[in-house]
UniProtKB/TrEMBL annotation:
It is a multi-pass membrane protein. Keywords: Cell membrane, Membrane, Transmembrane, Transmembrane helix. It is found in: Cell membrane. Its main location: membrane. This is LysE family translocator. One of its GO terms (cellular component) is plasma membrane. Coiled coil: none annotated.
């Protein structure tokens, strides 16, 4: 199956997805805030909304990057190097500034449908998410792969499939998770260093093999 990456790349990708999920960011903050303010149903609607946004980013990245590969392998290599530099910057920023977790238990107004679309909109309009997807996914695909578009799509869908159940677990354990993260700064710093180490390694690997 040409859309499957090789085993080492897939293992590294799954590890990266797990580290990404445990690293607090805008989607996690929004999910926790909606759950605490509006209950589990609001939290579930938020998870579904952010998942739809992520799916849209996946499709855009997969077909856009695959078009770039078809046009020029050299351009794809440039994209990978730029992506490596961006991942390196993320690693440094995680150590300098730490994880971003902002949770305010605000009352959720409106229907669950509105909550869903607000969450999807927040995800879709976040420029950092757009930049992340177009630089993160190519790190696990070879420019000379038999089916680069299929691999990009597979990786993106895997990201969504993994994050959906994890997001639901986040909703069900919202209060405990929020308390653990905010009351234990050492846990937050350990997450930051894990994130920085993993993505720093990815950045170094791609820079050394870019030729």
């Amino acid at each position: 199956m040409s859309f499957l990456p090789d085993a080492p790349a897939l293992a590294a990708y799954l590890l990266a997805c797990l580290v990404l999920w445990i690293t607090p960011g805008p989607d996690m903050s929004l999910t926790l805030a909606r759950t605490i303010g509006g209950g589990r149903r609001a939290g579930i609607a938020t998870v579904l909304g952010t998942s739809v946004g992520t799916l849209c980013h996946t499709l855009a990245a997969a077909f856009g990057i695959s078009a770039l590969i078809a046009a020029s392998a050299a351009a794809f290599t440039v994209l990978k190097v730029v992506g490596a530099l961006y991942l390196g910057w993320l690693a440094i920023d995680a150590i300098r500034r730490g994880s971003a977790l902002t949770v305010r238990a605000e009352r959720v107004q409106g229907s669950l449908r509105r909550t869903f679309w607000v969450a999807a909109g927040v995800n879709l309009t976040n420029p950092k998410v757009v930049l992340f997807f177009i630089t993160f996914l190519p790190q696990f695909v070879r420019a000379d792969a038999a089916d680069p578009a299929g691999q990009l799509l597979f990786l993106g869908l895997t990201f969504v499939v993994l994050n959906l159940p994890l997001g639901l677990l986040l909703v069900f354990g919202a209060e405990r998770i929020t308390g653990a993260l905010t009351a234990r700064p050492r846990i937050m710093r350990a997450i930051d260093w894990t994130f920085a180490g993993l993505f720093g390694a990815f950045a170094a690997r791609i820079l050394m093999t870019s030729r």
